[in-house]
Specification:
Strand content of chain A: 35-45%
Structural class of chain B: alpha+beta
Distance between the termini of chain A: 127 Å
Largest sheet of chain B: 4 strands, antiparallel
Helix content of chain B: 40-55%
Helix content of chain A: 40-55%
Order of helices and strands of chain B: HEEHHEEEE
Radius of gyration of chain B: 27 Å
Order of helices and strands of chain A: HEEEHEEEEEEHHEHHEEE
Number of helices of chain B: 3
Shape of chain A: rod-shaped
Oligomer: heterodimer
Strand content of chain B: 15-25%
Distance between the termini of chain B: 67 Å
Number of strands of chain A: 13
Radius of gyration of chain A: 42 Å
Shape of chain B: rod-shaped
Number of strands of chain B: 6
Number of helices of chain A: 6
Amino acid sequence: MKAVSALAMVLVASLSVVTVEGVYIFSTVEDFTTLKKGIREMSIIGEINKLEILKRHLHQALDYSFYQSQYDVSRIGGYSQISQAPQTYNNLPYWRIYTADYFPDYQKNMESSTLDFFKKYLDKIETTVQMATPSNVEITREDTDFASVKLVNDKMKLTKGNLTVEENGNVLETIKTNVFKMYDLAKGKFVTADSVNQAVLDGIAATGLKSSGSSTSCGSCPSDETVFQSANGKSTAQAKDLIKQKTDEKIDNIQVTGDISLSLEDRAKESDVKKTCSASWGGCCQVACGQNSCWCVAYYCTNSCSFTYYGAARSLVKITDNKVTYPVYDDNEKTTDLRNMKVNFYVLSGNKELISP
Amino acid sequence: MKAISGIEMLLIGAIGTVTIISAGVMPSATVKLTEDKNLIFEYNYNKVQLFLLNLLSTTSDNKKVYESVAEHIAINKPDNLDFLKGKFDNLLEKKCYQLATQTSVLLQAVSCQPVYFVNTTIVLPYNPNKLVETIKVGIG
């Protein structure tokens, strides 16, 4: 009887153990499945977060690449490298040399420069995401105030275990910029129109110098200079200075102030006066008489001249966005700071090639 | 040889039962505890990442918070990031946070110490000598 009860006890204990273990193992297996699923989901969310964070970095890198590109390209008149410019002066490009104009394809140059800067950023951004090297940047003018900057790229791919997340690799940013307005202003004044030549012509007209004159004297012809002085009340040298002065005043009028300003600096001016004269003799002005007769010893000489006036001017054009600043690096100052955008270039024009490029 | 008494048998049975149950439960309990810890870590790590993502995506006074942080680090403009405190408070329930570089703390809650951190390299305004900076974001 005693032995039976002991056996029953062991049996009951064993059954209890098996039951408890069974319940526990079942619930543990369930727990583990849920837990693993949870960890996996968390891991997927984590990877997606990483991808999203990377996208934020890429967008910002594109912004900064565009800022730097528009600063660097505009600083040297719309070129990525000054060596690309067909004609230069003081390490800046000419946009006009008399009748020839050289307007840069600044938008294309900014695209290639933005891509170069972006690639430098890409080298430094630490990521586990597979990304192809971007192939192209497209800058589109949205309206006068915005540029749409698109980085053309293959897919971004993130792989972790069996999980693969693929995303369109293109990065599109809409950036506020006045750069188009600045180039429009410059092109309108110095490429489509020739404001410097107009200033020279207006300057010459404003001098009030006469276009012709004549002088008569007895016995000898008045010099061309005498004719000029008698017509204009001043010497040729003084007239040349006057042309330069008036041209300078007219160039001042090209300048613009405001949010986008335009100034003309480092000015050089030249002027010239061409006299086309012809002398004619006629009429006796001095008579000598002997005992029986008189004769003419001197005749009048009339010198008639026409005057043509010329001027030319070279100037450094600076167009500045005074309203918006961008965090950019200046290669001369070797610092990064908030700076205004500037478009700098030279123009040379006039009604005669008095200044060499 | 003395026969084993009923009480002794009961005791042996109880000890055996506890031992067998423990032997079955302990390893799985240990593994579960570790997995739980992993889950909690992943959860909090994701929370910090999500906070960082929100932070990098929002704007303050029409300027991206990302730009404000990057420009503060690169050129000290703005000269402090205190204006972002409200933004941080709104993004976090516990209002416990820290934003720091490797060398200095940029912004942190006064009354708490964050526990969970993530590091990320953020893009700075162009400078050929330094294009990125590693920042550490922590939450409590």
